[in-house]
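Lab channel / #folding
Pinned by the channel admin:
"Please post every new chain as: sequence first, then the structure tokens as a reply. Keep commentary short and put observations after the output so the thread stays searchable."

First post following the new format, from NK:
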Amino acid sequence: MIIDAMNSLPDGLALLTPLGVIRVEGADAASFLHGQLSHDFALLGMSEARLAAFCTAKGRMQASFIGFKRAPHEVLLVCQRDLLPAALKRLSMFVMRAKARLSDASDDYRICGLAGSAVTPFGDAPGKTWSRQDHGSATVVQLYPAGAVARALWVAPAADALPAAESMALDLWQFGEVQAGVAMVSAAVVEAFVPQMLNYESIGGVNFKKGCYPGQEVVARSQFRGVLKRRAMLAHCAAPLAAGQEIFRGDDAEQPCATVVQAAPHPDGGWDAIVSGQVAALLAGDLHLAGADGPDVQVRAMPYPLLDDI
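Reply from TO:
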């Protein structure tokens, strides 16, 4: 069963304390990341950001990043803080002779989410998702909107003053993240998905023309061999939802058909989530949380088109 789109995000600024920052410095910073992540960092300019997956050799996402250059030889990777230590350790294993130094810079920066009128002072041309601009010592990255509400990521040195904007509760920002349909991997779902299961090929998270990276062959085969059978969709449930929870069909108590990727309380009641699962099962309906007789789960399509299989 497909339900109608829900309310959009209000205007305001939210402190994004669940996010952290990995700093990559050195002459080979961009080229090193180019060989590790699913997007092209070798051609990353100062006016753009990248959504990218960090995969295992089997193509499973162990982290996802929003990356951008702070300087010609310095790249910042924004990710969920709960998986940052493991992702930093794993990335550091591959540095070898590259002129790149990796560190946890989370305490050096403050990250905010801007929505609606709070984005206006930092606005870019419409449709310029993943563009980035410097505003003083702050970097602002344009994100996918939540409904009709513009959103941006603000990253600045921890000592900088916050932008002038109404304060927004974190759970409201997280609701907007779900409404935008762009999932970020957290510790609860590490190695659960290949990038296409989170629609990354459709939202600027995978470049199929770049060179090799861990899991590249699996990711490419998933795209080129035919119809993708597992995708991400939006969902709503009256009961609380959390990353890692399983969703079942009412006629199959043994095998889950989907997994909650990230979730947030809906301002009008219940919970919204991004879920990833078998497309046929999600579209057929009769979905339930945590078991075949659990609370009802309703789904709807993402707010963006999916890239056709190649």
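NK: The chain has two domains: 12-168, 187-300.
TO: also worth noting, Residues 183 and 191 are 14 Å apart (CA to CA).
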